[in-house]
Structures are given as structure tokens and as C-alpha cells.
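input
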Amino acid sequence: MPVAIEVLLVEDNPLDALTHQAEIRKAYRNARIETVERLADALHHLERHPVDIVFADLGLPDSQGLGTIEALVDGAGNTPVVALTGRDPDEEQQQRAIDMGAQDFLYKQMTLADVYRNCISNAIRRKRLEQETLQSALTDPLTGVLNRRALMDALDRALRRADSTTDVVLAFCDVDNVKRINDTYGHSVGDDALQLVAREIQDGVPGAAVGRLGGDEFAMVIRDLDEHDALAAIRELCVRGCGLKRLGPHGIEMSASWGVVVGDGDSDAQAMLTEVDRAVHRAKQQGGTVVVYDETMRRDDLLAEQQIGQLRSQIRLGLSEFELHFQEVVDTGTRHPVAYEGLLRWNHPHRGLLPAGAFIGQLQQSNLVPDIDHWVVRQAAGLLEAVPGRLHVNVSPVTLREPEQYLHLMRELAEVHDVAGRLVLEVTEDTLIEHADAGVRALLELQEMGFAIAIDDFGTGYSSFAYLEQLPVDWLKLDGQFLRQGSYSLIEGMAHIGRTLRIPIIVEGVETQEQHDWLAAGAIECGQGYFYHRPAREPWQRSSRTIPAAIPASRQRPDRHVRDHGVV
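output
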């Protein structure tokens, strides 16, 4: 049975078209030939009817030259395209056509049946081999979906074909806990989990271009659905992807976070990728959901980028707009301040006085945290002679991860200032666990220089009391959430362990008389919070105090146990 060949002939000259049709049918008797005269009609036909090969004249009413080939190669997908010309083509033109993706270049006066027969069979075979090679180069070997490069190409093509009213949806999926699956069940089960996710995404949105960006990250480009339908499909995928999955003999809980950005023909692919990454980051912070990147987020991120630029400028200018405000740490028995914690403030020229929470994220993103830590401790050390009591300052885990420059600075400060336990460096408990090697060595060295160490927000992280005897700890600061939640028994328990280990306790978040009275009656060494005073520039300069009267003397307090560097 002769082979049936589907041919699309793009030719505006009726006589040439009849000649091509006759010679093609001599070569393939069962050939079915569709002839159109314009490039636009050819692209429209290719969108709706698959063919085996395209022959295209380079001189069309709506397209001239090799631009015709470029457009057809892009529109034909896996279908081979052959260029036709009435002029004898030069070698450079032929090579450019091939570089654009054409499979062959035919001179019209030479298009006899044998030429067509060889051209068609060779073009189809070459295109198949080309596609197999391309498929191997553009496919993720584990899951069979597109790799990162191919997915970005798909996004570029979708945006080029779209106009200002066409939705192009980019969705980013971050699979949760793949590392835990690998560590618990082995990498083969982790691979099974990723393959399952890839299949579910492909099945969830047929026709979408699905790719694996790397590790546990997938993405897809959706062109054929409007924004509403695309989001509904993505939310369904998010719900379906959560829960118990059967992977071989194992039942494993899985979930994923999704970020989505909607673009159109005016959008930029790289900008969309940046925005969808920000959206999935927000989704992970919310505990695994779908977050659509919108104009509000875009404005917030633009403000953050501007703020990062301003922060970099401030670093260069010596942080002239920054200030340290201090909050008192109060002896709960005498109600007198015994220490002051330095809190960073930015006196922004347009936004007013900003607390650290308003810009700490940008500091972390821009890797400026160590510069700030250096500035803060210099400022605090310079105030030691004027302050009656201890000064507490925070040290970031980023600074302790590579502490060489910080240690060098602290040696200089210890030589100039009498720190002697009066300058207390506060670190979170997670810092000591996650950066145990470099961080603990640095803290031990800082203790030897005379600096005291406090564990900040104790009780909110690992809360392992076992490490308190092994690590350099002079003070424990209990997070204010314990008071807010009324978790007094937990405070009592941690205070008891602190006294046993001879580590005094500071409870943060004291906001009411009742909370203060309870701390004082329970022999908690120190309290800190708005009940006593809000942060101020130099609170030790106050001429009068507003702390309430002392509690009755009948309330007994056991003796305190204070370590060498923690003199109250």
C-alpha cells in the first residue's frame, strides 16, 4: 500500500503550484496536498491540521525572504519545512535557511518527482533524528518532562505568540519534604515521589508545557486557558498533591507550595520567573498553598528593591541615618533597670523612624547583616562608660557563620573598652544548633575576651536543655509568647533549670502589672517589656522614673545564682 503523505504547499503562483502538486503526486501517489497562498493562512492551517511536511515559497504576498522560513519553522513544531525559490539560491542563503531550521532548500526549476521523493524522505528522517536529539537535550532524564532550558523556551514562545489580551500563566511548584523522604526512605523513593508529582501536573493541565527546574521544583506554562480556569486547575492540583501517597510499600505524606504569575504578550519571561519564585516563597511561608503574584506584591517588592539600594548607600555613608534605641531590662525585685538592649532603628528621610522589622528582610537579602552587626557593636561599646549597667546587642547567625571579621573587630573593642561582662551578645538558640561548629567556637572565643553571651527567644526553637551545660551561655531570655499565652508553668520550669545550671533568666514581653507581679513573686531575675518602658535613645538619662511601687515585702524570693559574667 503506497504511503499517504500529508503536504502543505505554500505557493502564491498558480502555475508553480500545479507543477509542484503534479511532481509530488508522481513521487507519492496517495499524497494529500493542501495549497495556500499566504503565510498567515499556512500558520492558521498548521494550528489545526497536522501535516508531514511543508514546502514554502520565499516570495509570498504577506512575507518575503527567509523570514517566511523562520515563521513556519516556529509554527510547524516537529514538522519539517523545505524552502522553495525561483532564483538560483546562493550558498550563504541556503545555509541561513538551514540554520533557521529548514530541512532543505529547493530550486523550483529542479523540482522533479525524484527530487521530491528524495527530499521528502530525507527531510522527514532528518527531522525525526533532530527531534530525538533535541528531545534528549531538552528533557529531564528522571521525570521525562522538560528541563529548565526547554521550559524557558516554551515560555518565550508562548509570550511571542500572545498579545496584550492573551493570558500566559506561569506556575511554579515547590515539593515539600523531598530531602526528608530521601533521608528516611532512600533516594529511589524520593525519585518515585518526583516522578509522581510530574505525572500529576501533566494530567492536571493537559496541553500545558511542564518542566522540572531542578531538585524538587517544577513549573508549567499554560496558554490555552484563561486566568480563572488556569488558577482553578492549579488549586485543584495543590489539593490533590497533598496527603498520603503510596510509593512502593511506603505510605508517605506529601504536599507542595505553588506560586503563580499571569502575563501576556507584553510580559518578559525572566521577570515572570523572578516573580513566580517570589510567589512560591510566600506560599511556603504560609504553609503550603497557592499564591498568585499580584500588583500589591509587585509594589511591595519594588519598594523592597528600592530599600535595598538605600541600605547599600547607607552602608557606604557610614549608616548616618541609623540609630540605636534601648529598652530597659529590669530587676523584678527592685524594679530598677540593670541592663539595656540595643534595638536598631532607621531614621528614614521619607518614611520616618522605622523599626528593624521594617527592613531586616532587605538586609538579609542584600547580605548587609554583618555590616550592621559591626556598626551596632561599635556603637554599644562606645556607650559603655556612660551606661550604668549592661548593654545587650544582637548578633545575627549570618555573622557567626563566617565570624573572622567580627572576631577581629571584637578583639579591638576588648582592648579599648572595659567590656568585663557588661557587653552582652544575644544569639538565638537555633543559631547555636545550626552553626554549631563555627558559631560555638566564635562564642567561646568572645567569652574569653570578656563578652557575655545570652540565648535570645529561648523556648521557641530547639529548646534542648542538654546543650546549655556544653555551650557558652551566661543569660537565658525567654520569648514573650510565654507570657502572652499565660504559659506560667513553662516559665517556672525553665527558670528552675536555669537556677540549677546557674544561668539567670530574663523574661521578655512584660506588658501588665499582673505579669510583672507574677515574675517577681516567682523569683524570675529580670523582666523586659513595654510595662517598664518603650525603647528610647538614652533611657539611662531619665531624671525621674515611672515604674510602679514595689510589691509587698512579704513575697519571698530565693537567693539568686549569677554567673561570673552575669552580674546584675
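quick obs: Residues 333 and 520 are 6 Å apart (CA to CA).
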